Amino acid sequence: MRREFVLPVALFYGALFVVYGMYVPFMPVWLDWKGLTAGEISAVIAAPLFLRALVTPVVAVAVDRGRAYRRYLILLGWAALVFVLVLPLSHGFWLILLFAVLLVICNSTSMPLIDTIAVQGTRARGLDYGRLRLWGSLSFVAASFVGGIAISVFGGGAGIWLIAFGCALTLAAAYAVPASNRSNELSRETAPPLWKAVEPRELLACREFQLFLIAAGFVQAAHATFFTFGTLLWQKQGLSGAWCGTLWAIGVFAEVLLFSFSGRLVTKFGATRLIAIGAVASIARWLALAAEPNLAVLVPLQLLHGVTYGASHIGAMHFIHDAVPHEKSASAQALYATVSAGVAMGVATLIAGYVYAWGGALSYVAMAVIAALSLAAALQLIQVWNGAVLTERPAT
Predict the structure, then answer these.
(1) 182: pLDDT strictly greater than 70
(2) How large a percentage of the chain has pLDDT more than 90?
(3) To 10 degrees, what angle do helices 159-174 and 69-86 make?
(4) Which residue has the higher pLDDT, 87 or 228?
(5) 196-219 exposure pattern, b = at least 16 Cβ within 10 A, e = fewer
(6) Which residue blocks in the chain are alpha helix, DSSP H?
(7) Using an 8 Å Cβ cutoff, are 184 and 65 in contact?
């Protein structure tokens, strides 16, 4: 029973993170190869982050009601593959923007769905979510490393084909994901229509959930400069594509190590304190990168990725499972993704693009400020959340 659940979910994580391992470090390189300016690159990266705020919660509410996780993963997989294959044929900023937005929305909407399956499934079977999720990180390591070599050999134009390969793998893996056997808490006959859905509003009315979104969302959004311009900054420092890929791999390898014993970390520190620890490490990491350190310093700084991303993400997943009623879990995952990899990340990406055009690596200082806001919210959340399931009372 465990094997029938673990293997297909791990394969889907692995395939989806091949896309991320190619897209995050090398999509900006491909956009630069296509002749887009720094402002246009940041707009292409940021635009889907805003628009997913409209799409992802709607899909999540539909999934919460119908439990059709697998069906939606397959539909999103097919759409992503079509859009990524159209991108190489697109010319000019607006066409590239259109299909890049559609591609990212499809892939990013898949993430909260598979996270919901993984968190609920691992808890029900007595498994460790982090040890399942690490297969995604491992594939990110391999993809970013191989992608860096491919970029060095074939040039920036190869980036989009690497992303397309990942989309094909993700679609194939979606067919293997097990269908949910949980009964729906709210029948389709009695449920209000999607445009009148109350699930997101009820969650957003809770002060604890508001603080959670700021704390967990902002610490993830503070990665914007690194995700958008990190590779370009390293290339300007004279690092090869292979070294850039290696540095990405080192960062995610540190994340894998943290995921491998995440259960013990949650037991020791708790979900909210892990988010706060991630914010503290984030402040230190971005301030150090703003000084444009040499390779000897970049390697240990990349190890902090295991904390800035990994610890805060594990904290977020466990907070959602412990604090949110199960019938609203996909909606909660979607709201977290909408903020962390959506609106907050979009704003942070636009800020990163503006400061990068003016001061290059000084863009990391702005990210440290965003991380400080995350830390403030996390400290408040530690004080107000008592570990119980959130009620539907309005914020006070």
Answers:
(1) no
(2) 44
(3) 160
(4) 87
(5) ebebbebbebbbbbbbbbbbbbbb
(6) 2-33, 38-66, 69-86, 93-124, 129-154, 159-174, 199-204, 207-221, 224-236, 241-260, 262-269, 271-289, 295-303, 305, 312-323, 329-338, 344-359, 363-384
(7) yes
In the block, residue with structure tokens 């191989």: 146
Rounded-to-integer distance, Cα 396 and Cα 387, Å = 18
Question: Which DSSP symbol is given to 396?
Answer: -
- Rounded Cα distance, 363 and 320, in Å: 31
Q: Which token pair is 278?
A: 């991630």
| Distance from C-alpha of 189 to C-alpha of 185, rounded to nearest angstrom | 12
- Give DSSP secondary structure letters for 24-72: HHHHHHHHHHTT--HHHHHHHHHHHHHHHHHHHHHHHHHHHHH--HHHH
Please measure the distance between the N-terminal and C-terminal CA atoms of the chain and give it in whole angstroms.
Answer: 45
For the chain, the domains span 2-180+199-384
Whether residue 222 has pLDDT greater than 60: yes
Amino acid in position 232 = L
Token pair, residue 363, equals: 């863009």
Give the predicted TM-score (pTM) of the model.
0.77
Return the percentage of the chain with pLDDT > 70, whole number.
92
Contact present, 41 and 28 (Cβ < 8 Å): yes
Please report the pLDDT score of residue 64 as a whole number: 66
Q: Residue 75 has which token pair?
A: 């539909």
Q: How far apart are CA 36 and CA 82, in angstroms?
A: 23
Q: Which amino acid belongs to residue 40?
A: E
| Whole-number pLDDT of residue 181 | 55
Q: Are 239 and 288 in contact (CB under 8 A)?
A: no
- Using the 8-state DSSP alphabet, how is residue 127 labeled? -
pLDDT of residue 199 exceeding 70, the answer is no
Contact 265, 316 (CB under 8 A): no
Q: Answer whether residue 16 shows pLDDT above 70.
A: yes
Q: Are 49 and 349 in contact (CB under 8 A)?
A: yes
Q: Which two tokens stand for residue 361?
A: 């690596």
Residue closest to 311 by CA, chosen among 343, 285, 348: 285
- Per-residue model confidence as pLDDT tens digits over 302-312: 999 999 999 99
CATH class of 2-180+199-384: mainly alpha
